[in-house]
Design a protein that fits this description.
Layout: H1 20-50, H2 58-80, H3 89-97, H4 103-127, H5 144-167, H6 178-197, H7 203-213, H8 221-241
């Protein structure tokens, strides 16, 4: 099948950002991201508490992978019917470059995701008597460019999975397991990349930890990597693998 031209990116109208329907979707993204970040990052704090805050071990990595995978499975599920369950600016950006969400609606999603992450980590710090989830940073002996490439590849896999199981109109019954597939790829990616880049794959998650812990070392990696990886996955899947004679744009006339 020939590759189609990238003509489906839609800015939308500013009124869309303040429309009640968009705000409801933003609220769904806020709650879902809060649930995901609180459970995922909370598991790390809890595990450290149980092990008396010792050095990182392989069991720490497995626990983090399982907790984030399960939490994302739930977060995507609870928001899917309202907002699509993005729970990640990289997913929203991948949907935007593929023409599946307008710019203004996407910005509402991203702001909601960032706020959800920050609020989750503030609540977590309060609930655990001041214990703060560490900010993401590159692993020992790993260069920033190594970490950047790793975040690109890991997020590419995540957003590609989102497209294949949730966005593709030909997904059929596969769509019913989309939240599970998305949670599983995140868990697997954490096992693969956790020791090297932290395997964030999510700018909102990295932003929340950086804000609450006020640690910005190499923070740019956790925006650039996921957005590049998510953008590549969105463009590739939408314009190569989704066969649509006419692109189905999001309805914007109501706005």
């Amino acid at each position: 099948m020939p590759i189609r031209n990238i003509t489906n990116i839609t800015v939308g109208r500013f009124e869309e950002a303040t429309h009640p329907g968009t705000l409801k979707q933003g609220l769904a993204e806020f709650i879902a991201t809060l649930v995901f970040v609180f459970a995922g990052q909370g598991s790390g704090i809890a595990f450290k508490q149980l092990t008396n805050f010792g050095l990182n071990t392989p069991s720490d990595l497995v626990a983090a992978a399982l907790a984030h995978g399960f939490a994302l499975f739930v977060a995507v599920s609870i928001a899917a019917n309202t907002s699509g369950g993005h729970v990640n600016p990289a997913v929203t950006f991948g949907a935007f470059v593929g023409g599946n969400i307008t710019l203004f609606r996407g910005l509402v999603y991203i702001i909601a995701q960032l706020l959800g992450s920050v609020v989750a980590l503030i609540l977590l710090a309060f609930a655990t008597a001041g214990r703060i989830a560490p900010a993401f940073d590159v692993g020992s002996g790993v260069g920033v460019w190594n970490a950047l490439v790793l975040e690109i590849v890991l997020t590419f896999g995540l957003v590609y999975t989102v497209y294949a199981t949730a966005v593709d109109p030909n997904k059929g019954s596969l769509g019913t397991i989309a939240p599970l597939a998305i949670g599983l790829i995140v868990a697997a990616n954490i096992l693969a990349g956790g020791p090297f880049s932290g395997a964030s794959m999510n700018p909102a998650l990295a932003f929340g930890t950086a804000i609450v812990g006020w640690s910005w070392a190499n923070h740019w990696i956790y925006w650039a990597g996921p957005l590049i990886g998510g953008g590549i996955a969105g463009v590739l899947y939408e314009f190569v693998f989704i066969s649509r004679t006419h692109h189905e744009r999001l309805p914007t006339a109501d706005y």
